[in-house]
Amino acid sequence: MEFKGDGKDKFFIVTRGKARKGFSRGCIGRVEAVMHKGELMGLLYGGGSSGNPKSGDIVKREDTYPLTRHQAQLLLFVSPSSKRLELLCNPQLFSAICVLSQDDLVVVKHKKGHQPGLVRNLMLIGKKENQGDLLMLGFEVEFVQDSDQTVSPKKPAPLPLFSAADIIQVVPAHSVGIGPRWKDSYSEGLNRKAVSRINSMPNMGSRERQVRGINHLDQNVTQTPTQSPSHHPFEVGSIVEVTSNTGITVYGVIRWMGVLSENKNDWAGIELDYEVNNCTDGTYGGQQYFTCKEGRALFVPLTKCSPDGRFLCPPSEKETLKATDIPPVIPLEETDENVPPIPESEALSLLVGKMKGIQGHYNSCYLDATLFSLFSSSMTLDSVCHKPAGTEKSISRSLKKDIVNRLRRQGFVPAESVMNFRKQLGCDTFVTEEKDPEEFITILLQRVLCMKSLLKLRSNNNTSQDAYTFQIILDKEQVTQTPTVQQLLDISLLSCGLKFEEIPSCLMVHMPRFGKKYKMFPHIIPSTEFDITDLLYNSPRECFLCGRLAEYECPQCLQDRKLQPGRIKQYCTTCKTQVHTHPSRQSHCPRALAVPAEVPADAPVPRHKMQLFAVLCIHTSHYVSFVKYGPGPRSWLFFDSMADRCGDDQSGYNIPEIRACPEVGDFLSQSEEELARADPSQAGEPVRRLLSDSYMYLYQSASMALYR
User: Fold this and answer.
1) Which residues are known catalytic residues?
2) How far is it, in rounded angstroms, from Cα 310 to Cα 505?
3) Which end of the chain is less crowded, N or C, counting CB atoms within 10 A of the terminal residue's CB?
4) Largest CA distance in the chain
5) Angle 536-542-543 (CA atoms, 0-180°, nearest 5)?
6) pLDDT in tens, 318-334
7) Cis omega (within 30 of 0) for bond into 80
8) Where, per UniProt, does this protein localize (predicted)?
9) Which residues contact residue 525 at a Cβ distance below 8 angstroms, ignoring those fewer than 6 apart?
10) 3-class SS shares of the chain: helix, strand, coil, % to 5
C-alpha cells in the first residue's frame, strides 16, 4: 500500500485500531514522516469549519488506507467518522462519487426519503488560513422537478449542500439526456456566483444530448414496436434500466416476468433502486406479483428494458476495464476477536444491495453460496474458524479473518479473499473447476481441518457411521408428488434402517437430485422446523396412536393410506397388537425399540426440533442460496455471488447481490394443509425458485441458533 504524491500531499484514513488519544478509526490525517518501523507520523484533521491540522500521533501503516487530496476532502465533510468507513466499504459508489461531473444525475438522501437531482457545483467548505489547511468538499445539488413546472421569476433559493455519504446512486451525465429545454429553464441558476465554488469542475454539458424532461415516473409506458417481445436477453434477476415517457431513466432488478391479464405481450416487474412516485409494492391491477418496499415496483413491457448502462463498458472505449481497477476494500483490524453473526436488526442495512455478500470469481458459486449460508447469520459451524495449530491454522485463520469476519462486519467479501482461501484447500481443482457444496464441505471439514463428523448414524445391525452431510435415498413412489423435507428425511432414514445417535448441531440434507439436470421431484416443500425425535436411536418416543411410551416400530406401516402415509409409526404394546389385527397388516414385522428403563410408560416425551436456516439452490450449473437472517417469519434473504457482471469475461468482474425475500416467509408460514394444496407455479419467482431448485437444506439445533 503506497502513498502517492509528494510531501504534504500524502493523506490517509485510519481503518483499524482502538480509539486512543490522537488517531482513531475514521480519522483523516496527513503524512508528515515515514518511520523506519513502517509507522507513520501524521497530523490529524478535524471536521469543524476549519481544516486546520491538529497535533497528531504515530500510527501503523497497516492501520491506514491511502487517500488522494480530493478523496480526503470529500471524506472530511462526512460525519460521524464511522460513515466514512461505511462509504469506503462501497468502493464502486465511492469511486463514482470521486469523479462526479457537472450535470451528473445523483440520488441523495433528503429528509425521510430519496431525491434525484443534478450536481451543479463542487463546494469548498471553510476558510484556508494556513498552507497546510485541508478544506472540506461538498456537492451543490439541484433537485429534479416536474417537467411541466414553470420557473419562478424570483431569485432562485440557494441550492442544498450534500456530503459524499448523502449520495446513494450516481448516473453519469451522458446517460441521462438533459437537453436545451432544461438548460434554458435553469440558466439563471447556473450563472450565479459563489466564492467557495470550484470553477474547474468538469463540465459534461457540451456533449450532444437528446432532449428530455425529468419528471416522476409514469406507469403508462408505451411499448416500442420496433423490438420483438419474444426475443429479449433478460431473465428474473437481470439488472436493467428503463426510460419513461417523461424522460427519466431509472434502474432496478427484474423480479417478475410474464403476461398481464389485459395484455398479451411479455411484461416485467422491476424493483427499483429507490422509491419513485406512482410506483407500488409489487402490486399491479389489484394483484400481487412480487413483494418489495412501497414505491419501488415498476411494471413495463420487456421491450422498454435495457441492460443497466452503469455496468456496461461501451465498445468505443479504448481502455478495457480490468478486474484490478476495482477499488480495493479497506483492510480489517488485525484481531483474534470472534465477530458474532449479523443481528436481525442490522442484516438488511448491512447486506441488501449490489456488491454485497461474497463476490464470485471463476466457478466459485458453489463455495460462495455455501460460506454465505453457513456464516452470515448462524454460528453453528463457527468452531471451524477456531482450529488451533498445525497445518490447519493457516486456513482456519484465513476463513475467520478474510471471509467470516469481513462478511459479518462489512457485508462484503472481495473475490481476492475467496481465491486465497480456495488455494489453501489442498487441491488445484478447487481453484479452477466447478464443484458441489457437499464435496467442498467434506474436503474442508474432514481432510483440511480434520474435524469430527457432524453426523453419527446407527444402523439396524448396531454399526456406527460418520458423515458430514446426508444424502436422501428413496424410491419416488414412497412419497407424494410434492413432498416435504421432513417426509423425505423420515422415509429415507427408515428405509435405510438408520437413526441418529445424537442430535447434530448442524444437519445438511442433500436432496434427491443428481447432476445438473435430473430431479426426482419437480418441487419440494421446505420444512422450516424439522422434528428429529422419532429419528433418534435409543431415545424415548411416544406411541403414534395413544401417546404413551412407544415400544415397537413398524416400517411397513409407513405408507399405510389409513394411517397418515409418510409418518413414522411407533406403538406401545397394546396399540401394536390392535393395529396389526387388521388383515392387511398381519404380515407386517414390527421391531422392538430400545426403551430406556428409567422412563415411565406414561411420562410425556419431549420433542427435539431443528430450525431451517439456509437453502442452497441450483438451476443449471449455478448455485445461489436463501438464508434466514432472524427469528421473524419474513426474515429471508436471497444471495447470488454472480448476479451480474461488469466488463467482459477476460477483464471484468462479477457483481454479487443480496435482496430481501419476505414473500418466501409469507409462503412458508402457511399450514401443512395449505402448503400441500398450494400451486408452486402461481407463486412469485423467489418462491418458485426455492421450491423447484432446492439442492441442500441446512438445519441447526435450537441451542446453536444465534438470532438477535
Assistant:
1) 365, 622
2) 44
3) N
4) 102
5) 125
6) 333 343 344 455 555 55
7) yes
8) Cell membrane; Cytoplasm, Cytoskeleton, Cilium basal body; Cytoplasm, Cytoskeleton, Microtubule organizing center, Centrosome; Cytoplasm, Cytoskeleton, Spindle
9) 482, 483, 484, 485, 675, 676, 691
10) 25, 25, 45
CA–CA distances in Å: residue 516 to residues 365, 513, 543, 618, 693: 14, 8, 41, 8, 10
3-state secondary structure of 639: strand
Identify the helix (H) or strand (E) that includes residue 509.
strand 506-510
Confidence (pLDDT) at 623: 94
> Looking at residue 227, what is its pLDDT?
38
Question: Quick check: 216 pLDDT over 90?
Answer: no
Is residue 55 exposed (0-12), middle (13-18) or buried (19+ Cβ within 10 Å)?
Answer: exposed
Q: Which helix (H) or strand (E) holds 185?
A: helix 180-185
Determine whether 219 is exposed, middle or buried from the number of CB atoms within 10 Å of its CB (0-12, 13-18, 19+): middle
Q: What is the DSSP letter of 391?
A: T
Residue with cell 445461489: 624
Place of cell 402457511: 670
DSSP state of 124: E
Residues 6 or more apart from 552 whose CB is under 8 A from it?
Answer: 570, 571, 572, 573, 576, 590, 591, 592, 593
What residues contact residue 62 under an 8 Å CB cut-off, 6+ apart?
A: 1, 38, 331, 334
Bridge partner list, 171 = 105
**In this model, does residue 219 exceed pLDDT 60?**
no
Q: Report pTM.
A: 0.59
Return the half-sphere exposure (C-beta side, CA atoms, 13 A cut-off) of residue 71. 24
Nearby residues of 462 by Cβ (< 8 Å), 6 or more positions away = none
For residue 389, give Cα distances in angstroms to 338, 392, 394, 397: 17, 6, 8, 10
**Residue 371 pLDDT exceeds 90:** yes
**What's the confidence (pLDDT) of residue 52?**
63
Mean pLDDT over 128-147 rounds to 77
The CA distance from 301 to 264, in Å, is 10
DSSP label of 443: I
For 302, the grid coordinates are 420487456
DSSP letters, 410-435, are HSEE-HHHHHHHHGGGS-THHHHS--
Directed axis angle between helix 91-98 and helix 81-88, to 10°? 100
Where helices occur in 497-615 by DSSP H, the ranges are 573-579
Residue with cell 479452477: 432
Kindly tell me if the per-residue pLDDT of 179 is higher than 50. Answer: no
Give the number of other Cβ atoms within 10 Å of residue 613's Cβ.
25
pLDDT at 453 over 70: yes
* Cα angle 187, 190, 195; round to 5: 150
Return the H-helix or E-strand segment holding 508.
Answer: strand 506-510
**pLDDT tens-place string over residues 523-540:** 999 999 999 988 988 888
Rg of the chain taking only CA atoms, in angstroms: 30
Strand partners, 58: 41
CA-CA distance, 384 to 387, in Å (whole number)? 6
